[in-house]
Amino acid sequence: MLAILGLVLGVVLGVVLQPTVPDALGPYLPIAIVAALDALFGACRAWLEGVFSDRVFVVSFFSNVLIAAVIVWMGDQIGVGSQLSTGVVVVLGIRIFTNLAAIRRAVIHA
Amino acid sequence: MDLLRLVTAGALEAEYLPPAQQTPPTRRSRALLVITVGIAVALLTIAAVQTQRGATAAEAERSDLLARISKYQQQQESLRTQLQDLQREVRDMRSAVVGEATSKELAAAELAAGGRAVQGPGIVVHAEDALDASRLDGRIIDQDLSQLVNGLFESGAEAVSVNDHRITSTTAIRGAGSAITVDYRSLTHPYRIEAVGDPNGLQQRFVETEAASWWEYLRLNYGVRYSISPATDLHLGADPTLNVSFARPGAS
Rounded distance, CA B31 to CA B41, Å? Predict the structure, then answer.
C-alpha cells in the first residue's frame, strides 16, 4: 500500500515539476536510474519471498544510486571514460535479470 | 564464471533477513519507504520526460532547418531570375545609349566571356555514377567534372554548361559533402555537359585530351558511365553571376 502511494507520488512529482536536470549531472542520471531499478526489483523480490525490510530497501537504494554515480564520476576523472559505466550497467543488468527471474518464479511458479 | 556466480548469488541484498530476525518497521522507516519509492519513480519519470522532450525538440529543429533551406533556395532562384531580367534590361538600355559600334564590340566581348546566352552546334556528354556506386567508390566527384570541362575547353569548346549551369572563367566547380556544386549551386546526377563548338573537330580533339583518358580510366576501373554524342542545336544560358568586384582595368 505504502509502496503504491510512493509510486503515485513519484509519477506526480516527475510530471508536474518536470525539473531540468543540471548539465553537470546529465551523465550520472541514466546510471543512477539503472541502480534505482535494481534496488526496486530487489525490493520486489524480497517482498514476494517474504523477507522485505523497508530499512534495508532504503539503505540499499541510496547506496546503490550513490555508488553507481560515484563510479561513473571516477571513470570520468581517471580517464577511462564510459568504460566504468559499462561495467556498472553490466553488473546491475545481471542483478536485475536475476531478480526478475526470481520474481517470475515467485509469481507464476515457473 | 565465479564472478558471474557472485553477481547472481548476491542479486538479493544479503541484509533482507527472514522476518523473525528483523526489527519490526517503525513509523519513521515507513515514511522513508514512501519517500524512497517516490524518489526512484520520480527519477524514472524525469528521465523519460526529458528524453521525450529532447527527441521532439530535435525533430522540430530538423524540420525547421529543412523548411528554411528550401525557402532560401527558392529565394535564391527567384533572385537569379530577377538578376537575369535586370541584366537584360541593362543591356538594352546600354545599347540604346552607346553607339552601334560600341555595343557590337560589347556584345562580342560578352559572348566570349559567357555573359550572354548562346546557341550553336556542339557535343553533349552524359555522365552518371556507377551502377553499384557506394559512398566512396564509383561516384563522380568535383575534380572529375572540372577535368572534363577543362578537356572540353582544351579541345576548342566555345561555351560549356553543366546541368544548365554555364561555365565561365570564374565558375567554381567544387565538392560539398556528397554533392558537386557549380557556382555554389548543387547538382544532381546524372550530369549533362553541353559544349558548343566545331561539331566535327570537337569530339575528335576531345578524345585525345588528358580528360578523355582520365574518364576512360574511370569508366574501366570504377564503372562510371559516360557517353558523348553530337548535337546540332544547343542552347546555353548566360552565367548570371558573371561580374568582377575587385578587379579594375589596368594599364596595358
Answer: 16
